[in-house]
């Protein structure tokens, strides 16, 4: 596992290209993936997810590349005999590198394993985040487990941090050692720095289903305001 971590920590320099999405509007909206049940390969790549555009990457390279699926990823689950969560740095990310305060996984201490969150746990600015590569050893195996994360919305300018925002989210996974896992679903709060409760899926009439993408989300906001 030490080799995995060293490899994952080695980040290639990247040129900022590709599309990102701006979050606008003042109304809190939880964006929910729906049940997707995506496979998480149990290898050094695992599954990268960009929660803003829903794109994912699971190889064959170890990292997604800018402009490709999974670029500007927000969380990554990988592993071989055991599971690890990996925080974004520069690989596959817009410039500048993702700030420490814009990434990480909810944990008990900043250097500890990712927490196995109870349903409804609030993930917000008071949560403790491991911003590196926390172990997944505390997560329930063989059944659904919830972890919390925070992420950077890169904003339209891929070379500047001025329009970047920080958001909170959760993901539900099913993991077992020595075999592929499953990403069941995930959600995030569209308003920067606004808390979200782990595993809580809002009423269909009050959340933005991810399938429509952010265009759908923004249209929904406009409809709500009109
Ligand atoms: Ca991101
Ligand atoms: Ca930016």
List the helices and strands and how they pair.
Blueprint: H1 2-9, E1 30-32, E2 38-40, E3 47-49, E4 56-57, E5 75-79, E6 83-86, E7 105-106, E8 122-123, E9 129-130, E10 144-153, E11 165-176, E12 179-189, E13 196-197, E14 208-209, H2 213-225
This protein binds calcium ion (2 copies).
Short recap of the structure:
The protein is mainly beta.
What features would you describe in this structure?
The protein has helices at 2-9, 213-225; strands at 30-32, 38-40, 47-49, 56-57, 75-79, 83-86, 105-106, 122-123, 129-130, 144-153, 165-176, 179-189, 196-197, 208-209. The chain is mainly beta. The protein has one domain. One calcium ion binds at residues 154-155, 157-158, 160-161, 163-164.
By secondary-structure content and strand pairing, the structural class works out as mainly beta
Question: Uncertain runs with pLDDT below 50, 5 residues or more?
Answer: 1-25, 215-226
The overall pLDDT, averaged over residues, is: 84
Rounded to an integer in angstroms, the radius of gyration calculated over CA atoms is 16 Å
Percent strand = 25-35%
Count the DSSP helices. Answer: 2
Q: Helix-strand pattern, N to C?
A: HEEEEEEEEEEEEEEH
Shape: globular
Instruction: Tell me the span between the first and last alpha carbons.
Output: 53 Å
**Helix content, binned percent:** under 10%
Q: Which small compounds were modeled alongside the protein?
A: calcium ion
């Amino acid at each position: 596992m030490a080799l995995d971590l060293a490899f994952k920590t080695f980040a290639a320099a990247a040129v900022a290209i590709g599309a990102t999405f701006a979050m606008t509007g003042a109304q809190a909206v939880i964006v929910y993936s729906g049940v997707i049940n995506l496979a998480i390969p149990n290898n050094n790549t695992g599954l990268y997810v960009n929660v803003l555009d829903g794109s994912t990457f699971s190889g064959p390279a170890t990292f997604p590349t800018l402009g490709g699926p999974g670029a500007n990823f927000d969380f990554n689950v990988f592993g071989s005999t055991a599971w690890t969560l990996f925080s974004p740095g520069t690989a596959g990310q817009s410039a500048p590198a993702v700030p420490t305060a814009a990434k990480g996984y909810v944990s008990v201490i900043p250097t500890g394993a990712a927490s196995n969150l109870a349903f409804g746990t609030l993930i917000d600015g008071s949560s403790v985040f491991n911003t590196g590569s926390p172990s997944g050893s505390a997560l329930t195996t063989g059944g659904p487990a919830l972890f919390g994360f925070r992420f950077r919305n890169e904003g339209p300018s891929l070379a500047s941090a001025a329009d970047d925002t920080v958001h909170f989210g959760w993901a539900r996974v099913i993991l077992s050692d020595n075999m592929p896992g499953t990403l069941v679903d995930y959600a995030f709060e569209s308003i920067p720095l606004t808390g979200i409760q782990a595993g809580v899926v809002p009423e269909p009439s009050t959340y933005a289903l991810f399938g429509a993408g952010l265009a759908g989300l923004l249209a929904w906001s406009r409809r709500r305001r009109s």
